[in-house]
Amino acid sequence: MKLLRLLEENSRLSLEQLATMTGMKAEEVAAELERYEREGIIRSYGAIIDWDKTERHYVSALIELRVSPKRDCGFEEIAKTIMEFPEVESVYLMSGGYDLAVTVSGESFKDIAMFVAYRLSPLDSVLSTATHFVLRRYKERGVVLCEEEGDEREVTVL
Prior knowledge:
The chain is an alpha+beta fold. 31% of the residues lie in helices and 22% in strands. The chain has five helices and six strands. Strands 2-3-1-4 form a four-stranded antiparallel β-sheet. Helix 2 crosses helix 3 (26-38). The longest helix has 13 residues, at 26-38.
């Protein structure tokens, strides 16, 4: 588990660094990583990007979905259908007031609104949606994104 936690924190660590940090040999680390990849434990390696600091137009939203589960397959069928849309970044089965949480991205608020209106809402199992646009990312997967002070978008309410 220590090896997985280290990779989750920084996937750019070398085999030698991982070996030193875990007390393993580099060959053992390589074998473990290969096994984790083969078994699907490690699904991807990636970077966390602060899109606000780039030229790319980027808008994301969390969409709450209430859906009607299908007999014999529950939520699996609708989740698989939703996962196939290229705008969709993640899909989670939830407890509480809604069934699925879907995160999506697009180039504009309108792109996301049109995705919800014309592709997501019309699906047979979808009963209702609630879209919440991300206005600012403060922390992503454990990484703080807004370390600088004095962003002109900040507003102080008294």
